[in-house]
Design a protein that fits this description.
about 300 residues; Arc Repressor Mutant, subunit A; D-Maltodextrin-Binding Protein, domain 2; five-stranded mixed β-sheet; three-stranded antiparallel β-sheet; 13 strands; about 40% helix; WH_DNA-bd_sf; Transcriptional regulator, LysR family; transcription
């Protein structure tokens, strides 16, 4: 490594941004720089370190082992400095320009996004909802690399890098068409397993929603269709004599639209615990505290 009497700390900001985003272009956008400026900064930092930091992989770039090592060693410390300074300046929702990113599935987004939009309507703040990746490690990596500010989902993995809080508990309900020819106001266990099912596939868990939410091993079901979205599942129910399991509050929103009725499941099912997870270093950051408080205010 080449020693420099006056090291330009701004090179660290650029290096960490490129690691986070995996792109010179996205890092330039994040830092409000030109792409050539980012490329030049990385070249200068490479000269200081004396090793390659990034390699091309198709249209993307990937960090080398040295870059990953440096990121692990430097990111938290550098971010803590920035957070300390930011904390001293404070956060004022009325004047602070900020974009927050929340990873959440369609059920959570359905409840929270419209309400949060009303909160920030006249503020210089943007809250963007994005679908979480299919795999736990990818979800938590996005949170750790600060490509997201919050993750709101069920059964998220945890370690010392993160904090979490139970946000709400959803109750599962059986959903069928009001015109179902055989199902009345109640459904028995035998009736449930005699009917065809719209199966909701939980991609993160490689399980169906029903299997995830019950402790018993259920008999095989007759499958009418397999869906990854409850909204498309409700559409299938409206035009068939099939049934499915859904979070109660979400299903209640669509009973009139799809002409559906809700029935208590004929066997014991666990509640759906929806958790909010954030990076531990942001626990006392004023902007992140504000975001979490707004989310919590909507589910009380």
């Amino acid at each position: 490594m080449t020693l420099h009497k006056q090291f330009d700390v701004n090179l660290l900001r650029v290096f960490l941004a490129v690691c986070r985003t995996g792109s010179y272009t996205l890092a330039a956008d994040e830092l409000d720089l030109t792409q050539p400026s980012v490329s030049n900064a990385i070249s200068r930092f490479k000269a200081v370190i004396g090793e390659e930091l990034f390699v091309r992989s198709g249209r993307n770039i990937k960090p080398t082992a040295m870059a990953n090592y440096l990121y692990e060693q430097l990111n938290d410390s550098f971010s803590n400095i920035e957070q300390t300074i930011s904390g001293l300046e404070g956060f004022n929702a009325a004047t602070s320009e900020r974009q927050f990113v929340i990873l959440a599935g369609d059920v959570v987004s359905h409840f929270l996004q419209p309400a949060l939009e009303k909160i920030v309507k006249d503020l210089p703040i943007e809250i963007v909802f994005r679908e979480p990746p299919d795999h736990d490690e990818d979800i938590m990596e996005k949170l750790y690399l600060e490509q997201a500010d919050l993750v709101i989902d069920m059964q998220l993995p945890m370690d010392l890098r993160f904090e979490k809080r139970l946000l709400m508990r959803e109750l599962p309900i059986c959903v069928v068409s009001k015109e179902h020819p055989r199902i009345g106001d109640k459904i028995s266990r035998d009736e449930y397993f005699d009917e065809r099912h719209v199966v909701i596939k939980m991609r993160r868990f490689n399980l169906t929603a029903v299997d995830l939410l019950t402790d018993e091993v259920l008999p095989a079901r007759k499958v009418y269709s397999v869906k990854s979205s409850l909204l498309t599942a409700f559409d299938s129910l409206a035009s068939s004599d099939s049934l499915c399991i859904s979070p109660r509050r979400y299903a209640e929103e669509y009973t009139d639209m799809f002409n559906l009725k809700l029935l208590e499941p004929p066997f014991k099912m666990n509640g759906i615990d929806i958790e909010m997870v954030w990076k531990r270093k942001h626990d006392k950051n004023p902007a992140h505290i504000w975001l979490r408080e707004q989310v919590l205010s909507l589910v009380k």
